[in-house]
Design a protein that fits this description.
Blueprint: H1 3-9, H2 13-32, H3 37-50, H4 69-82, H5 91-104, H6 107-118, E1 124-127, E2 143-147, E3 150-161, E4 168-174, E5 185-191, E6 197-202, E7 211-222, E8 226-227, H7 233-250, H8 269-278, H9 285-307, H10 311-333, H11 345-356, H12 367-378
Parallel strand pairs: 1-4
Antiparallel strand pairs: 2-3, 3-7, 4-5, 5-8, 6-7
Bound molecules: flavin-adenine dinucleotide.
């Protein structure tokens, strides 16, 4: 291997930072050639993979770069504010499903899913929540039964973000109703494009259908697409949720200039400053105070991520920030923030974010659930009473 090749295979942190910055400088040109959001998303992810940046600390045999956790941290620090909104198409795969498979999946699952997932060739959704099982996720009733070399899955999921365009779902299903509720759950990878899976979009008050109901009626899943062990899925479910909360907590802020309904990100303070000027409120002391608090809140988000705080801290801070900036936008936007015409891009942007921010306090676990988690796991407070923890799931009262 030449010295240049060795440097490329194991660059210093400074050289790696330069490499990552150079890639992101080229992203506008890469995206400029494509039109639809899906094509742009896939083009972006493939370019990232070709540049050796799609899975910085993933093993090379599964499509990663095989670099250290320090390199990964450098990548995250530089990439988070520069990533295009197209990355959100892969949020569940890259941020949640793939790291869980990397850490807990069999060699054949890693071989099958990691490389195409990192390249953006497959889109993932998260099949966790059910009508009767949200915060109480372990109360889920969707069931999977073994039939030869397949599992047969029947049940309903809800609030499934992006299911309408997903190829694969990371699924939790009950595989032993005679075990206590946390003990009889298994994690699967479910192929979404099959006759037994029906996806029905749910239109939100933003006017956009970002999430769905998913009905599974004897859907089929290959026997070896179980992640981890059968009936041992709860530990993996929690591990995936930690990845989810960390991803949300990183708090990517889209560029204000995009002015689109760009996803579930807090409104950038830069955009609020422009808006305050337009509204003639930039010198109003009350507004200045609110904007200063918002600026501090925005700066704290990446610092929390860099310090590696408990995932619930970052998640909670980011959702509170989202609501704080939306409140300011609402005040500055007046009627535009809640009543708008869909052909008015400017008003559409503000209204979308004002209406959307509340959902971020629910998705990935509600604010109250984050506080419970922090109380129990960080502060060491007594656990919530769980009288049903040892009772067979079959005998529990159901929602
Ligand atoms: C934008 C968005 C995207 C989502 N995407 C997905 C997805 O892709 N896949 C998926 O599976 N799910 C998804 N969800 C669902 C999300 O995970 C659930 O909405 C969430 O876990 C809450 O569950 P629930 O809606 O059933 O509310 P519930 O659990 O019924 O909660 C109702 C209220 O009671 C409070 N509460 C409940 N239990 C407690 C407790 N023990 N202590 C204190 N307060 C409590 C809650 O905080 C909440 O205020 C998404 C939700 C949103 C809003």
């Amino acid at each position: 291997m030449s010295t240049d090749d060795q440097r490329a295979a194991n660059p210093t942190l400074d050289d790696f930072a330069t490499e990552v910055e150079a890639f992101f400088a080229s992203v506008p040109e890469i995206l400029g050639k494509e039109s639809s959001k899906l094509t742009r998303s896939q083009t972006y992810r493939a370019a990232l993979a070709d540049a050796g940046l799609a899975g910085v600390s993933y093993p090379t045999e599964f499509g990663g770069r095989g670099l250290s956790a320090e390199h990964e941290a450098v990548f995250q620090r530089i990439a988070t504010p520069l990533q295009p909104s197209e990355e959100s198409t892969f949020g569940i795969g890259i941020g949640m499903a793939l790291p869980t498979i990397r850490d807990y999946g069999s060699e054949s699952l890693k071989e099958r899913f990691l490389r195409p997932g990192l390249r953006g060739e497959e889109i993932w959704c998260q099949l966790y929540s059910e009508p009767g099982a949200g915060s109480d996720l372990a109360g889920l009733t969707c069931k999977a039964e073994r039939d030869g070399d397949e599992w047969i899955v029947t049940g309903q999921k809800v609030w499934t973000s992006g299911a309408q365009q997903s190829d694969l779902g990371i699924l939790l299903a009950r595989t032993d109703p005679d075990a206590p509720k946390h003990a009889g759950i298994t994690m699967f990878v479910l192929p979404m494009n099959q006759p037994g899976v029906e996806v029905r979009p749910l239109v939100q008050m933003t006017g956009v259908a970002e999430f769905n109901e998913v009905f599974m009626d004897e859907a089929r899943c290959p026997a070896d697409w179980v992640v981890g062990d059968v009936n041992a899925g709860w530990k993996l479910a929690v591990a995936l949720l930690a990845h989810e909360r960390t991803s949300i907590g990183k708090g990517q802020v889209t560029k204000h200039s995009e002015h689109s309904k760009a996803g579930r990100f807090p409104i950038p303070v830069e955009g609020l400053l422009d808006r305050a000027s337009t509204a003639g409120r930039r010198h109003d002391p009350v507004m200045r105070d609110a904007l200063a608090q918002a600026y501090i809140g925005e700066r704290i988000i990446p610092w929390l991520a860099q310090r590696g705080v408990h995932p619930s801290v970052g998640k909670l801070w980011r959702t509170l920030q989202g609501r704080h900036v939306a409140q300011i936008a609402h005040e500055l936007g007046g009627g535009h923030a809640t009543a708008w015409e869909h052909d008015d891009t400017e008003a559409d942007y503000w209204a979308y974010h004002v209406l959307n921010c509340r959902g971020m306090s629910l998705g990935g676990g509600t604010d109250e659930v984050q506080k419970n988690t922090l109380g129990e796991r960080v502060l060491g407070l007594p656990r919530e009473p769980g009288p049903d923890r040892n009772t067979p799931f079959r005998d529990l009262l159901k929602n």
